[in-house]
Amino acid sequence: MKKTINYWVEKLALLPHPEGGFYKETYRSPVQGSFHGFDGDRNVVTGIYFLLTKDNFSAFHRIKSDEMWHFYAGDSLEIYWFSPQGELAVINLGLDLEKGEVPQAVVPRDCWFASRVKQGGDYALVGCTVAPGFDFQDFELANREDLLNIYPRSAEIINQLTRQ
């Protein structure tokens, strides 16, 4: 039987995430170091649980690190991201390999990306591993007009997955 959203939020002690959904940090490497392109030291790696619902998407944003996504439970998740060449790519994160889903994938650093539960789904419970480790000073939420100016051919998805 499929678990409910409230089940996961309660059992995993998830909190609201600033970009949408719920999360809980599960790991922050005790090892720190300096990395090219970062101001100050960063943890080597961090990990979170991340839960998105059909009514709550993760808005376009970017971070300075690679982010690996892992599928755990629920319905498949669509991850939209812009390649350095400006092409829109879609990752279908899930367990139905025959339908082109993958159980894990990486969004490269410095790429604008957003995610949402696939249409018809209720929620997706995933994990995100970030290296070098996540720090909110490396996080940038997209401005809709700025993205539309850069990627005008992708106006429909930008309008759907931005909040400002």
UniProtKB/TrEMBL annotation:
Pfam families: Cupin_5. Residues 7-142 form the DUF985 domain. InterPro entries: Cupin_DUF985, RmlC-like_jellyroll, RmlC_Cupin_sf, YML079W-like. This is Cupin domain-containing protein. It comes from Synechocystis salina LEGE 00031.
